């Protein structure tokens, strides 16, 4: 039986509630059902020479020297995306960050297998880190299985609880540059006045960073302040509330300039909601043939939203049913099984 150690550092501190923490937590739970001997470790733990067959680091920080490989035990590393390298003018690491990046690039060359979430991210890894494609295993993620369609009564209760409008589009996520929030906000200019936008995420609060300044500037320029609502209280743990907000929306809008995966697309499908998303990064891989694809501009996004609004009840129900079936092909059990295959490939 394979003896696998997984570094659980992402479950400590601020990463625990971010995507890396979710990935680590869900993957560990699924791996425990696989025929391997699984041990959770942190950087503080002393590892004996042949204690494990392999160590899995489920994260890769570009701009800090986080990858400390064991001299005698082979390892696998998960790289979710390299978006900061795709947009270097927007993600400036400073001198220490640049030095750390050089070190990280050297270290990753010693890794036997790299796991990533999408074919798009695999292409980025080959391009920016000069890895052999044979070293990279593409293993898709899965949505939170607790996020499912909610009843009309539950939707009404949550709309009242958070004082949401009756007709709203939904965005769930962060405010990083690649998320393209200014164009999302500008999109409202090209939609009927009764349509509002709900943005769910803990970072939709005033803060002295360029991303927030761009949000405030765009709201003022587009004159849409009364049609935008930021909801910061719905954390990942409040799955019923989040599922009800998904379920009550007209559609999810994912306007990203780039993504390594795009979990909200799957989550919205699980909750029976159509998707409008940009045709960038990994989003076409996740949305398949069931999303309405747009250029990452306000006008193009609005055009696709209008198509969703104009769907007949029958067509919408059919699309939602197909979306739910598609989302169910992504499971953490499958992610875990493919991860074990990557372990075996690394040791072959």
Description:
By secondary structure, the protein is an alpha/beta fold. The protein folds into 2 domains: 3-142 and 332-347, Rossmann fold (3-Layer(aba) Sandwich); 152-327, Rossmann fold (3-Layer(aba) Sandwich). It contains 13 helices and 12 strands. Helix 1 crosses helix 13 and helix 9 crosses helix 12 (313-327).
Offer a concise description of the structure.
The chain has 348 residues and is of the alpha/beta class. Helices cover 40% and strands 14% of the residues.
> What would you call the shape?
globular
Q: Summarize model confidence as the mean pLDDT.
A: 95
- Specify the number of helices: 13
CATH topology of the largest domain: Rossmann fold
Main β-sheet, in a few words?
Answer: 6 strands, parallel
Entry keywords:
alpha/beta, Rossmann fold, 3-stranded parallel beta sheet, 12 strands, globular, 13 helices, single chain, 348 residues
Summarize the helices and strands and which ones pair or pack:
Layout: E1 3-7, H1 19-31, E2 37-41, E3 54-57, E4 75-78, H2 83-86, H3 94-108, E5 113-116, H4 119-129, E6 136-138, H5 152-161, E7 168-172, H6 181-186, E8 196-200, H7 210-222, E9 228-231, H8 239-248, E10 252-254, H9 263-270, E11 275-278, H10 283-287, E12 292-294, H11 298-309, H12 313-327, H13 332-347
Parallel strand pairs: 1-2, 1-3, 3-4, 4-5, 5-6, 7-8, 8-9, 10-11, 11-12
Helix pairs in contact: 1-13, 5-8, 9-12
